Each structure stands twice: as C-alpha cells, then as structure tokens.
Amino acid sequence: MSGRMTDLFDLRATHNSHRWYLPVTQDVTVGPPGKKFLFGGVGLASAITAMERTTGRPTIWATAQYLSYAHPPAMVDLDVIVPRSGNNVTQARVVGHVADTEIFTVNAALGERPNAVEGQWAQKPDVPPPEDCLPMPRWNPQDKDMHDKIDLRVAKGRYGAARADGQFSEDGHAVLWGRAVDGVPVTSGLLAILADFVPSATGHALGRHAGANSLDNTIRIRQLVDTEWMCLDIRIHGVRSGFVHGRMHIFSHDGLLMATASQSAILRLFP
User: Fold this and answer.
1) pTM of the predicted model, to two decimals?
2) Do residues 83 and 103 touch, judged by C-beta distance below 8 A?
3) For residues 27 and 88, is the Cβ–Cβ distance under 8 A?
4) pLDDT, tens digit only, all 271 positions of the chain
C-alpha cells in the first residue's frame, strides 16, 4: 500500500501503522554525479509526514539529527515511536534506517490547542517579487535530482559566480523565493524541505564558492497557508572551526510567518 501524499517524495505505509518506508530514488537526492544521497530535508519531511499520519496531529516542532547517508536505490525504513500522547500534545520520534544503519533521528511535538490569541512580530523582508528574480544557480543543471522539484529564485544574496569575490557579507543575509513545482500543496513536509536550504547562503556570507552538509535541521511550524511562493529569509550567523550556523524564517507570499528553522552544517570550501 502506498501512503503517497505529494510528488516531492514517495512515503509508503506498511501493515504496521507505526512503520513507513521511503524509496531513495534519484529525484529525492542531492550531491555530485555518482555520489547522490538522500536530501536531508526529505529525511525530515518524510519523518514529519509519518508522525502526522500515525498520530493524526499536526506538527508543532521537529528536529532532525543527520547521522549517515542513504544512497539510491536504498529503502529507508521509518519507525514512529510515541512515548507520550496527551489531550493536546503528542511527543514522538522517528528513527530512519537502512537495514541496521541509522540514517536520521527526528524528535517532534505534534498537536494543537484551542486558543484565539495570535500575533506576529517577524516581518518579511522587502525584496523584489519572484517573477523579477533570477533562478538560483546550480552546479550542474543537467544532473537530475531534488533541485528539479523545487523552484528557487534569488531575491537577495550572492549565488553562483557572483559570490566568489572573496569579501565577507556585511550581515550574512540572503533571501530566496521558493515553491514546489507542479502545484504540490503546502504541507509541513514541504516547509521542512525548504528549511534545509539554510546552508545555501554560506557562499554568500563568505564571498567564496562554498557549501555545507547539514548536521541537523530544526523547524517550528506557526501556520500553514495556501500560497504558491514562500519567502525564505536566511541569515548565516557565524562560521568557525569548520562549521556554519544559520537560521531561516519562512513567510507566505503576502508576509504571514509560516515557520522558523535553524541549522548547523559542515563547511565545504570549493576551488
């Protein structure tokens, strides 16, 4: 039985409501040719989706620790553990593994409480609309992978050749517009995938050809809304000892704060 909900990844159900599995196909991977691996954001997104389906509750927050790589054509098993489920909040976790090799662990809280109080203090940055922004450059556009499912536009920041001037950014601030192609609906999983692009601003911050491999990904969901484009407000906070740290605010097209995210990653400097 397939548990497919989106075209971004093919999470499938089993006879056990607490076990799911994810085929690692080329279209959910990133990395150089011949060395593709499961995109970390897909790992977090699939775990979030598995927990939401198992518990029947929406995600409040989730944090992933990335432990190893899953290469195609591997099959990742996702085991959902629910140590505590209260009247409003469920505490859960997922262990994603290929055979005996643990690939990622995700801890989360899910639920909602009846409360009419709401507010927003974070503000969407003032940037050009997506139709006026160029696509985010790719290392090899002919190499098909996860990037073919996400449309990213550069609203602010140095990406591609423009970042290689050797000068540090003044504030480490970059802004992307992002959306899923083919009209895939907005879900917690989609936000988790977009959140994994925090390290994409590393090269902008350093003024060098640079990237990073995620060690973790934490996302906090405020509100899901139906929006085609999402504004990804990224700040690289600092780089030291071979690691980069940053965060992202995800806004709807019209400025509603949908989620916040943060990551630490292994710094990669390229020639």
Assistant:
1) 0.95
2) no
3) no
4) 344 445 799 999 999 999 999 999 999 999 988 899 999 999 999 999 999 999 999 999 999 999 999 999 999 999 999 999 999 999 999 999 999 999 999 999 999 998 889 999 999 999 999 999 999 998 777 788 999 999 999 999 999 888 889 999 999 999 999 999 988 899 999 999 999 999 999 999 999 999 999 999 999 999 999 999 999 999 999 999 999 999 999 999 999 999 999 999 999 998 8
Structure-block tokens of residue 59: 């995600």
* Check whether domain 132-269 has CATH 3.40.190.170, yes or no: no
Q: Fill in the amino acid letter for 149.
A: K
At the fourth CATH level, the homologous superfamily of domain 12-111 is Acyl-CoA thioesterase, double hotdog domain (2.40.160.210)
Question: Rounded to the nearest 10 degrees, what angle do helices 188-195 and 40-55 cross at?
Answer: 160
- Report the alpha-carbon distance of residue 22 to residue 13 in Å, rounded: 9
Longest dimension (CA), the chain: 55
